[in-house]
Amino acid sequence: MLATGVSAPDADVLERLGPWSTTAATGYRPEYLAGFDSPRYDIDANAGFASARQDMAAVIQDDCRADIGGDEQRVDELSTADQDVLFRLLLLPLWIATYLTGGKTFHVFVNANTGEVIGERPYSAAKIAAAAVAALAAVTAAYLLYRTNAR
Known about the structure:
Layout: H1 11-17, H2 45-68, E1 94-101, E2 104-111, E3 117-119, H3 125-150
Antiparallel strand pairs: 1-2, 2-3
């Protein structure tokens, strides 16, 4: 649990926030997190690799079908092998904001690489109704102005 009261986002949120650039990835140093709250990993390396292997299998199959080409392909068997597999922890540049308004908690996640933002926000029924009334008034005024000038 982070000090903000938000646990780390689930895999779906991280997937939607992607892509995550790893081109500038470097080794871990404690000063990277100095002054920041950071969740500890909670997925075992082997479980994470099993999940990644499933994701990779779908991409590999799509790539094979694309290489074959044509309208229809029949792939009876596809075999892959893993070599020199290494596990490393990766710090993802993710900003998490939590705020409370109207007695409800809202969370916002920002990918610090791409600027992609995913989150929740409050909706004001009064402001939405006022905007709808204003739009209706503008359309009505434009219609009346048109009818007046058309005569």
